[in-house]
Structure formats: C-alpha cells, structure tokens
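Journal club prep — side note

Before the paper discussion, L.F. wants everyone to see what a predicted structure for a comparable chain looks like in token form. Sequence:
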Amino acid sequence: MEYRLLGGSGLKVPIFAFGAGTFGSGSEFFDAWGATANIAEARRIVDLCFEAGVTLFDTADGYSNGRSEEVLGKALEGRRDKALISTKATFRVGDGPNDAGSSRYHLRRSLEGSLRRLGTDYVDIYHMHAFDALTPIEEVQDTLNTFVREGKVRYIACSNFSGWHLMKSLAVADRYGWTRYAAHQVYYSLIGREYEWELMPLALDQKVGALIWSPLGWGRLTGKLRRGQPMPKVSRLHKTAGAAPPVADEHLYKVVEAIDAVAAETGKTVPQIALNWLLQRPTVSSVIVGARNEEQLRENLGALGWSLTAGQMAALDKASAVTPIYPYWHQRLFPERNPVPV
C-alpha cells in the first residue's frame, strides 16, 4: 500500500480509505448503499482492509443516525491502535434547535457522542461535514483548535466547502495561530470534475489534501450503466438518484466508452480504471471506497499496484472534460497566467 502525506501535515494516510457508510443500516438512504448492522460482517471487511494496508476508516455521526460509528467501533475493538479513524459533524442529528451546525455547543456534543459510539478517546481526522454559514468562523476554528489541544482530535478537515469557505477558514486559523484544515473531503470523479476548477488550485496553494468521496460517481461508473441498456433492476440509484448530482446520459456514455477502450488495453475493469485515474490526479491524498461485501472490496482493491499510462490518462481526460462555468472558462482562455493543475 502506498502512503501519502495528508496535505501539509505530517500524517501519512493510505491512498485507499474505507468508507464505513455501509456500516450501520436503519435509514433508507444508507440501506440503499447496502448498509449492514452485522458486526461479524463488518469485522471481516475490516480484516480484509488491514490485510491490504487500508488502515483509514471514514464515517460520520449522521451515517445511519450514528450506527455507522457504533458498528465501526465494534469492528475495530482490540486493534484501535492499528487504525486511523475519520468522522464528521455539522449535519442535523436531532430535533432540537442546536442539533445541527458547527457551533461550539453542537460540536462539543457531537464529538463526545462520536467518541462514545466509536469506543475511543480520540479521532485521527475530524471533519466539518458541511459549511455552517450561521456560526462565526472564529467560533468554529477556535472550537476545533481546542479539541486538538485537548488530545481528542489529531487533525481537522472540512468537507463540501466552496473555495471562499475554505480560504476564509484557513485565514482565520492562521490569524490566531490555530490548527488549520489539513484536508478537504470532496466529491470528485471522471463524471464530476468540478473540484478541479477552484478547489484543486486552492489545495495546491494552501497544501490541503483531498479525500475523495463517491469516486465512482454515485455508482454510475460501475460498468453497469451503458448506452442502449436500461438501469439494472438492483441499483442504489433507484433510491439515491434524487441526491446525486445530475449527469447527462450522453456525457456518461461517452466517458464509459472511453473507459471501456482503456479496459481493453489493460485488462482492468471499469471501476478499477476510474479509481486509478483519481490516484494520479493532483492533491489527492486518499480515495474513499465503500463495499457492501468482500467481493466488491476486492474488486476495488484491484485498482492498486499499477498505473494508467500518460496516453490513457489523456484519453480519459478528454472524454470527461466539460466546459466550466464562469469565471473558470474565462480564466482557462489565458493558461499562461492560469495554468491547469497537473
């Protein structure tokens, strides 16, 4: 397993992390992803992860109403010291007025709850799951810095921030000498390349590592969706399509057909090629992969240990390219002053 530094921090993380959103069950959204509450099954998945060198496990307090953290904690019993745990807060976890957001009140309660469910006294990476526009950034960053000083959190990160959200948060942390975000967990895939427009250049400039969620484009890059074929009867997209970012059918088919061409050259599968492409992109520290079962996990692990050629990367880049929104399309007219990250 290859390890990379998490942004500008000294923490080394495996290039594959396991997304424990498939642990827990109990909510329609996560059940559609194949979530399980079976501790024995979860422990077997964790065993396979350790065997492959996948030692980073990502969860959140809102996944299956906290049950993902509970199952992950049980699956890691007796070997917590071998794992890196990433969890998150901000999304609503109750009916009260302070049961959502990134206020000091909510984050304190959220962290204590996560530690209890995970069965640990610290988390390695603690994410703000989304930006809270109502809480002062100073309050958020001061609270997170306090968690680090208390030893309950090792590194802090954010997720789903816009460019100005992240840059202002970093600026506030720098102003007061507080711990800064080491990573940004982002949606990025061959059919969702908006991360490259502003967040990737920012990450390069500020040394913020990218942790990639939904690297297969909400299940669209499994190889099961193709031109002239109906959606499979068994697909999580039947239940999660409303939350998934829209992708034009023609664009999807064009990308999949380009992947098919590379698959014929490499003997690899569609998901393996899509994952390997991400591993060669700038700023990527780790790609978060999920799995409903052992077979799917082993399939994803097949993306490791080899690399696409420069020609294959270029072909995939070309097939998946779209015209950015303003001002990014305008900036790309002047590559001499605004070079595309490579």
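L.F.'s comment for the group: The longest helix spans residues 249-266. Keep this in mind when we get to the figures.
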